[in-house]
Design brief:
Elements: E1 15-21, E2 23-24, E3 27-33, E4 42-43, E5 46-48, H1 55-67, E6 71-85, E7 91-104, E8 115-121, H2 123-128, H3 133-143
Parallel strand pairs: 1-7
Antiparallel strand pairs: 1-5, 2-3, 3-4, 3-8, 6-7
């Protein structure tokens, strides 16, 4: 399928989403996603930026909703696209995701919103869980988390 074959409407324009990469000792914070894309997979916590909301504010809101954590947002560490098509060749999702390195003052998790679970995961846990391939790619290439 080529880009010319894809039917595009305004509802399929790319949306901006943000993610928080947070480490605790030799572990990384992951959430089990409830909703697509990547429903049922473990990934970096975060979500969509709402109109009029800054990326940092969106990330703070999403982390509070998904994990109960208050974060300090640092530098951008990874940027990527997620584009998924349905069986008719139409775009279901197109997100431009910007992951930030973040820090927290406390580590007690309270999963909520669209996170089925939130956990601190070590390298062994990454191999045991169904972790999103883009999350793994980011952890391995940017942080040598292997």
């Amino acid at each position: 399928m080529t880009k010319e074959d894809v039917k595009i409407s305004s509802k399929h324009l790319p949306a901006v989403a943000v993610g928080a990469v947070i480490f605790k000792n030799d572990m990384v914070l992951l959430v089990k996603r409830l909703n697509p894309p990547a429903a049922g997979q473990w990934a970096i916590p975060g979500g969509k930026v709402k109109p009029g909301e800054s990326m940092h504010d969106a990330l703070k809101r999403e982390l509070a909703e998904e994990t109960g954590l208050e974060i300090q947002v640092g530098e951008v560490v990874y940027v990527f696209d997620v584009i998924e098509y349905n069986k008719n060749g139409e775009i279901d999702f197109h997100y431009i995701i910007i992951d930030f390195l973040c820090s927290v003052n406390q580590y007690d998790l309270k999963p909520g919103d669209d996170a089925l679970a939130a956990e601190w995961v070590d390298l062994k846990g990454l191999k045991e869980k169904k972790v999103n391939k883009r999350t793994l790619e980011m952890l391995y290439t940017k942080f040598n988390f292997s």
